[in-house]
Design brief:
- It is a single chain.
- By secondary structure, the chain is mainly beta.
- It has one helix and five strands.
- It has one domain.
- 12% of the residues lie in helices and 40% in strands.
- It has a five-stranded mixed beta sheet.
- Strand 2 and strand 3 form a beta hairpin.
């Protein structure tokens, strides 16, 4: 899956983004056809990963430590 530069803005490693998608805990439908996936990074930290166009050409556009409103 393609990972955009905007997804790297908060310092989450590419491998952690992909790991979180494989080990997801929750999924929220966002706006503009973006899914917000809450999952575990390789070290167990809970992160949020935004996936744009999940049905056509999925790409990761956002990743950061999960905010309390999505994970608490």
């Amino acid at each position: 899956m393609r990972i955009t530069a905007s997804a790297r803005r908060h310092g989450v490693a590419d491998e952690d983004m992909l790991h979180a998608l494989r080990h997801l805990l929750r999924v929220y439908e966002g706006r503009d056809e973006v899914l917000l996936v809450i999952g575990a990074a390789r070290d167990g930290q809970i992160i949020e990963v935004g996936v744009a166009d999940p049905d056509d050409e999925p790409r990761i556009v956002h990743a950061m430590r999960a905010r309390p409103k999505f994970w608490s």
